[in-house]
Specification:
Layout: H1 3-12, H2 16-25, H3 28-31, H4 34-46, H5 49-60, H6 66-82, H7 86-99, H8 104-117, H9 120-137, H10 140-156, H11 160-177, H12 180-197, H13 200-213, H14 219-236, H15 239-256, H16 259-275, H17 279-293, H18 298-314, H19 318-334
Helix pairs in contact: 1-2, 1-4, 2-4, 4-5, 5-6, 6-7, 6-8, 7-8, 8-9, 9-10, 10-11, 10-12, 11-12, 12-13, 12-14, 13-14, 14-15, 14-16, 15-16, 16-17, 16-18, 17-18, 18-19
Length: 345
């Protein structure tokens, strides 16, 4: 088996460290520029999306063959989407579809990019088409991912009952596929939707279960589980435990350069300080969150504006608070957000 095929197989089996060892021993001069693609794959799977993009670009600029170029476009779209950079996500997903209009991975990434951009109609059209395709092929992994994506979209539009049903279907198909990674993210989605519905204990259990399934190599999943569990504990009133978990999550997100998710950590910490009556500390955290959200998370940006306004009102700064609150409201309407008043994020 050639070294390239061996690395690919190991990554498919999620044996990241084994693939890393082989890749580290490969001579770039002898192996070729494809090494950059697999470096990108390993970094993406570990949750280091910005570093992954840098490696994908190095491979992309080496004028690869058509099928390799297509794969690279899809991976770039995926990374930009995960980082919340919707314009680049849509750009590369469209490029991938132009390269191969019938490629299911390209279509899926396009749907996910439209979902990020708030274009529900376009996203649902592609999702429904892919669901039929995956069902016909008995592709349980594909079905799990589709239902997970639709669960998140329904949550965004406030359809929480539908959202829970979608995430349960995602978990069902992930179990049929015996894909632990998909099970983790289905549980994350389910935990988030149940938390917003007020079922805090079930949400916390789902986060714990997800953390148990998550690979130690998946830095993003670990950070997400810490943050999600902290959100649940915060809502339950266990503030000290929640704060400790936010700090653990924040360190991991910082190591990945994940500004939007680090923003949610800071926002959660601000909520804790607000509940403790430490208003100046809360305002500082909400400001930090706002600046991080400005790098690619419009919903979080608006959420932090509302949170800052609440503190400013309490501090007697009515004019500043009014400006902050109503600017956020106008921005939410321009973005056509449906659940921008969701404060349980």
């Amino acid at each position: 088996m050639q070294i390239k095929e061996k690395i690919s197989r190991l990554l498919e089996e999620e044996k990241i460290e084994s693939a890393q060892k082989i890749l580290d021993s490969a001579s770039l001069r002898k192996a070729g520029n494809w090494v950059y693609f697999y470096k990108g794959e390993i970094l993406r799977m570990k949750g280091f999306f910005k570093k992954a993009v840098d490696n994908y670009f190095k491979f992309f600029s080496s004028n690869p063959e058509k099928n390799e170029k297509l794969a690279c476009m899809i991976k770039l779209a995926s990374c930009f989407r995960t980082m919340g950079i919707k314009e680049e996500a849509i750009r590369y997903s469209k490029m991938a579809i132009e390269e191969d209009p019938h490629n299911p991975d390209a279509l899926l990434e396009a749907a996910m990019s439209f979902r990020l951009a708030g274009d529900r109609k376009k996203a649902e059209t592609i999702f429904n088409s892919l669901e039929k395709m995956y069902m016909k092929e008995k592709d349980f992994s594909g079905l799990s991912y589709i239902w997970w994506a639709m669960g998140g979209m329904n949550r965004t539009y406030g359809d929480l009952g539908k959202s829970v049903k979608c995430f349960k279907k995602a978990l069902y198909f992930a179990s049929k596929a015996r894909d632990r990674s998909l099970m983790v993210y289905a549980l994350f989605g389910l935990a988030g939707a149940m938390r917003i519905k007020g079922d805090i204990n079930a949400s916390i259990e789902a986060y714990k279960k997800a953390a148990g399934y998550a690979s130690r190599n998946d830095t993003f999943a670990r950070a997400y589980s810490f943050c999600g569990l902290a959100n649940g504990l915060r809502q339950k009133g266990e503030l000290s435990k929640a704060l400790a978990l936010y700090k653990k999550s924040g360190k991991l997100y910082l190591s990945m350069g994940d500004a939007p998710d680090l923003g949610f950590v800071n926002w959660g910490m601000g909520e804790i300080y607000k509940k403790r009556g430490e208003l100046k500390k809360a305002l500082e955290k909400f400001k930090e969150a706002y600046m991080l959200f400005k790098k690619g998370e419009k919903r979080g940006e608006i959420l932090s504006m509302f949170s800052m306004a609440q503190i400013l009102y309490v501090l007697g700064k009515k004019e500043e608070a009014d400006k902050m609150y109503f600017s956020g409201l106008d921005e939410a309407r321009r973005e056509n957000f449906k659940t921008y008043l969701e404060i349980f994020t």
